[in-house]
Amino acid sequence: MYTIGQVEEITGVKQHVLRYWEEVIPGFAPKKDFGGRRLYSQKDMETVLRMKHLIYQKKFTIEGARDQIINESEAFEKSADLLGQIRSARRELTEAFFALRKLR
Predict the structure, then answer these.
(1) How far apart are CA 68 and CA 47, in angstroms?
(2) Structural domain harbouring 75
């Protein structure tokens, strides 16, 4: 876990910008400790670096970068769901294969 100061130092993104991004990016909400200090996970760090790349290198607007991250997240969820379906089908086919072998 990283503090907001550590995130600023590592990524070069100012603390006030990080706090603003929390407001505009769905799902980007670092946990807070008992004192109310933000604690950023590795996933949060990846989001910060992705936002920074989209805004500063790719010249996206904040809204455009947010929309891109949302789209990427939805695509990831769909692919994860598809992977789950493939694994389930594979499991069923394997069970059917071994059941047929026992019948011989």
Answers:
(1) 11
(2) 2-103
Give the tokens for residue 16: 């006030």
Quote the pLDDT of residue 74.
75
Query: Do residues 53 and 13 lie in contact, with contact meaning Cβ atoms separated by under 8 Å?
Result: no
CA distances to 28, 50, 79, 91 from 66, rounded to whole Å, are 10, 10, 20, 37
Tell me the pLDDT band of 60, cut-offs 50, 70 and 90. Answer: very high
Instruction: Put the strands of the sheet holding 2-3 in their side by side order.
Output: 2-3, 38-40, 31-32
Give me the pLDDT at residue 42, please. Answer: 92
Instruction: Please enumerate in sequence order all residues whose Cβ is within 8 A of that of 52, keeping only pairs 6 or more positions apart, or say none.
Output: 11, 12, 13
CATH number of the domain bearing residue 27: 1.10.1660.10
